[in-house]
Each structure stands twice: as C-alpha cells, then as structure tokens.
Amino acid sequence: MRDTLLPLLRCPRTGRALTLVDPVCDGDEVLEATLVTEGSPHDAERWSVRRGVPRFVPAANYADSFGFQWNRFPGTQLDSVSGLRISRDRFLGQWSLPEEWFAGRRILDVGCGAGRFAEVCLSLGAEVVAVDLSGAVDACYTSLRHHPKLHVVQASVYELPFAPGTFDGAYSFGVIQHTPDVRRTFHAIVPMVRPGGELAIDVYKRDWKSWLHPKPWLRPLTSRVPANTLFQAIERAAPTLLAASHLAGSVPVVGRALRRAVPVADYEGTLPLDARQRLEWAVLDTFDWLSPRYDQPQTGETMRAWAAEAGLVDVRVHHPAHLTLRARRPD
Question: I need a labelling partner for 163 at 20 to 30 A (CA). Which of 15, 114, 222, 229 fits?
Fold first, then answer.
C-alpha cells in the first residue's frame, strides 16, 4: 500500500477517514499496519494492512475459489506474461473509448482477480485501484506492485471503502454474475464514479443457448466440491477433454455444437494460444466455470433496466466478449 492511497480510503461501515497506526514500510510502501477510523477512540473501527494490501473483509468468504485459482495462475492471463494482446483487446473492446481517455484518470477495477485488466489500464496511463473480495489480491499485488499508480484493496463490493464520486471511471469484467445479488452489485459500483464519469460492466449472457452448455448442468454438483479437489480433477482430465473437443469439432456440419457439449474451455481457433497456453487456459477457465458458488447470467433488457434505475445516460449494451453495458453518470 502506498501513502497516496490513504486519502482515498474510508471506513466501509461509517464512511470516516482512516489513519495509519504502527506502519511497517519498505520504501514508499506500507507492508503491515492498522487502519483506524478518525474520531472518538471508543467507537473507532480497525482494519489491517497485511502483505501490502488493506483488508476490509474476513480471510474466508464465498469467493475463495477465485482466490485459489488466481494464486495458482497469477500470470496466465497477463498480456505481459503471455506476450499476447488478449486482455488488452477485450478491455478496449468492452470500454469502447479512445485509449487516450484513460491517461491521468483514476479508475476503479471491481473484482480485479490477478490483475489482467488492471495491467492494461495502467499501461494506458491511468491510476488504478484494484479491488477483490478474495485472496486474488495477493496475486495482483505481487505481479503488479512495481507500477507506481497501482493500489490493491481487499474489500466487498457491498461495502467499498471509498467515498462516493472518488473515481473518474469504473469497470467490472467477468465478476458481477458471481456475486449473491447481481442487481445490488451493479448499484453498489455506480455511486463510486463521479458525475460525468464512465462505467463498463459485463455479465454472462442469459439466453436459451446457455442451457446447451454443460456448465449449468454440472455446477450444482461441482460448486460443492472443495477447490483443491476439483482443480486436481480438472487438471487430470483437461488433456483428454481437449482431445475430445478437437475431435468433436472436426465433425462436419454439427462439429461446433458437439464441441460445445464437451465440458472444457477450449480456445482452439478463437484465441492465438500455443499448445501449452491452450492447456493452461483450459484448466483455468474450466475451473472458473465449475467452482463459483454463484453464477447468474443476465439479459440485455435487465442491464438496461438497471441503468435506468441508476439514472445513467449514453447507455450502450453490446456483446464484444461478454454482454457489456457502457454508460456515463450524468453531469
């Protein structure tokens, strides 16, 4: 945690400013400390900074599987590690803003995971506050701590530790459908953006085709399996499942439908991955399909209704990678 983050932080329960107590530092970074709410000592709230990250939630929570996966695959989806532009292209495609818009802006990343999109946003010149409920914050902090404009915070989207209007923009990609109340999650993000600020939020799309995918049929069972057990099973099965997916895809006419029925994330022909990367992404994303406690796809009509409730303007719902809402808070 850098000193420049402290003025942005607020107690998520009272909204009070926070003071650092007993900091242990490494240069300009605070590695360990206590955060105490300003005001009367008898009712002060206390939070901790551990391993460089301010933490406003218990260590164990419903997002534990994501902490497991991103600490197991911290660099898999970082463009700087893969040498590809997969995360950058998705980020820019879903925002639909000129690259130069981000320079000098303060941006909130809700559900940062290992930091794949935070890395892109930083590369565009933004100051990024990356938030996650899970232990994925440790992977993000370790991989990206060298960026002077990065801040990483472990917190709940329902109790974000910032004052309303702190950010010029906010995004949440691949996240909100995995929260207990998707509508409430959407409405928790919007106030963090100043009037005139921009938002980009995506969800899995809900339509009849989603029921042809094996994920909704398997998840009621697999989401109950301990993360490590499920991961090991997927890791063992992935090479065979990828071979089956390739074989199914080679069947004339119906190959695409057959391939979709194989329970593995296979990016052959859709992402420019080599054989090693294809296997690694298959294990990662198949686990991502099957492990979350919550998985609640939405429709474009629902997202437009939420935008109307929030009073957003310039609303655009499109589908570049996932179903994405782009909008602006009115001036």
Answer: 114
Closest of 130, 153, 189 to residue 53, by C-alpha = 153
Indicate yes or no: pTM above 0.85: yes
Ramachandran category for residue 288: left, alpha or beta (phi over 0 → left; psi -120 to 50 → alpha): alpha
Q: What angle do CA 91, 95, 97 make, to 5 degrees?
A: 115
CB atoms within 10 A of CB 21: 12
How far lies 56's CA from each of 136, 154, 166, 189, in Å?
14, 6, 18, 17
* Percentage of the chain exceeding pLDDT 90: 86
Edge to edge, the sheet with strand 150-154 lists 18-26, 29-37, 46-50, 53-55, 150-154, 127-132, 106-110, 167-172, 193-203, 323-328, 313-318
Dihedral of the alpha carbons of 172, 178, 184, 186, in degrees to the nearest 10: 20
What is residue 60's predicted lDDT score, i.e. its pLDDT?
A: 79
Using an 8 Å Cβ cutoff, are 154 and 53 in contact? yes
Instruction: State how far the Cα of 17 lies from the Cα of 209, in Å rounded to an integer.
Output: 48
The H or E element that residue 279 is part of is helix 275-290
The kind and range of the H/E element at 232 are helix 227-249
Contact 327, 94 (CB under 8 A): no
pLDDT in tens, 219-257: 999 999 999 999 999 999 999 999 999 999 999 888 888
Structure tokens at 126: 């933004």
HSE-CB for 225 with a 13 A CA cutoff:
16
Q: Give the 3-state secondary structure percentages of the chain, helix then strand then coil, rounded to 5.
A: 40, 25, 35
Question: Measured between alpha carbons, how far is 292 from 178 in angstroms, rounded to an integer?
Answer: 7
